[in-house]
Amino acid sequence: MMTITVPTAPTVSRPALGRTGTAAALLLPIALINAIGFILPVLNLLRMSFNEALAGGGVRETFTLANWTGLFGDSFYVELIINSITVSLSITIATLIVSYPIALYLHRSTGRWRTFLTVLVISPLLTSAVVRTYGWIALLADQGPIVSAIAALGIAPPRLMFNTTGVIIGLTEILMPYMILSLLAGFGRLDPRVEEAAMSLGAPPAKTFWRVILPLTLPGIALGCLLCFVLAVSSFITPKLLGGGRIFLLATEIYDQAIVTLNWPLAATLSMLVLIIFGAALAAYARVLRAIE
Amino acid sequence: MEDTNTSAPMKLLVAILFLFLLAPVILVVPLSFSGEQILSFPPESWSLRWYAALADNPKMISAFWTSLTLGVIVTAISLAVAIPAAYVIVRMRTLGSTFLYNLFTAPLLLPTIVLGLAILIIFASVGFLGTFTGIVIGHLVITLPYALRVIATTLGNLNLACEEAASTLGGRPLTVFHRVTLPMMAPGIVAATALCFLVSFDEVVITLFLTGPRLTTLPVELFHHVESRADPLVASVSVLLILLTLAVVMIVDRTIGLSKTFVK
């Protein structure tokens, strides 16, 4: 993901609070919460993926690879993993296509108009994913406005909800703000004068786009795609609600195994798999970035 | 100013895409005034019945108060814990400042579905599931990194000269912090407060793992409601939630300016 840099300030010449003891005391609360709410649970989760699940929700402490081999030996799970990845990739591409024009337009606008549009882009982020998914349920329902409009055109009305199509439409919209903001962050190198130069030298708009604008915005595209893919693979609320329990993806399966089936070792193994996919996406991103440079 | 170089078809495309982006949020407003028994759009009749139904729904109302209390407590603890931590990490530059900063903001890199499961398994063994304490700790895991990040950034951008002048003039370290550093950090603290509250108030995935039959938050209650039936009740709650978010954002805007907080 993005590189993290500690905001720096030069050391106070006379350290305001002096001794290391004070520093340790001030760091203790955050360290404690970090340890019991993050480090310990995550290490325990990794350990849990090597435990044996007993019938009825029990767990036996042992060291077995059975959860891992079982995952790849079961066609249901192999399909679930492949499905999760392909659905997430489709969502990423769809999000890129619908976000790019908005980002480009935002990049070109200035002043209050730009601020206003930026607030419009960010405002959905401040609205709960449950609320936005609920909005999509109303829009995509069988008797809903979109299906009715398609039917009015004389086309056989498609099912847009409780299937993969619905999940892709809903998640695409939900991830758009992240994509737009990532694209904008990467558009810094896009100078309008470069476009003007290409146009004034006789390049048609389409050619200007493919040969000048697109190459310059590739870093932003790579960042936005990484972020959206990672968020899509791990999203839970939208697939669960818009999929109506009929769409099986990694995140929904983790929840079902943890809460309904009570198979914690399997849920832990699936969680680790999500983290491995994250790692792979990050590695792919690093390679793409190097290729662009 | 509006860009004049953009062609008309491009403007139309951008307008349609904006409509797509905002459609589900805008839609809940008319939906909440539906007079229908079930979720349908556009509604055939209009009424306030779903607001009345909300007022008669003790489960939603108690979930709302739980979320509100939770948000306030989580925000208060986040600030009390993150301000000293940010001060030590940015100003005192103790051994391994960078490492500590990365460690304390690392929970944001994990998907909430994984974090929620991890916390569920640990909390189940100590009896924290379905308790208020358990949910507070669960929320702190993700609000603290935000608070630390915002406050550390503010602190890093502050001019050291004022603090040094106060020290030189004989101010005791605590007095300098209280009278000089803290007031200068105010914009960052307001931003962190709003962010922590909104994150806690909206959190749903981690909370889903930690709530019990007797204790539930508003987003979790909404999730279960949408999962089990489709009626316009959620729309009326959503409108009130959007108004609450707007209120928080307006307060931030009045205090320090929205563009300084969220748009950088």
TrEMBL record, chain A:
Gene3D superfamilies recorded: MetI-like
Family according to the record? Belongs to the binding-protein-dependent transport system permease family. CysTW subfamily.
Locations listed in the record? Cell membrane
Its placement in the membrane is given as:
Multi-pass membrane protein
Membrane-crossing residue ranges in chain numbering: 21-43, 80-103, 115-137, 167-188, 209-237, 264-286
**The organism sits in which domain of life?**
Bacteria
The record lists the organism as: Microvirga splendida
Q: Does the keyword Transmembrane helix apply?
A: yes
Protein name from the UniProt record: ABC transporter permease
User: What Pfam families does the database record attribute to this sequence?
Assistant: BPD_transp_1
Automatic annotation (TrEMBL), chain B:
How does the protein's chain sit in the membrane according to the entry? Multi-pass membrane protein
Q: What is its main location?
A: membrane
Sorted keywords for this record are: Cell inner membrane, Cell membrane, Membrane, Transmembrane, Transmembrane helix, Transport
Pfam families named in the record = BPD_transp_1
Q: Where do the ABC transmembrane type-1 domain residues begin and end?
A: 64-252
Location comes to: Cell inner membrane; Cell membrane
Can you tell me where the transmembrane regions are? Answer: 12-33, 64-87, 99-122, 128-148, 189-212, 232-252
The text of the family note is: Belongs to the binding-protein-dependent transport system permease family.
From the Swiss-Prot or TrEMBL record, give the protein name: ABC transporter permease
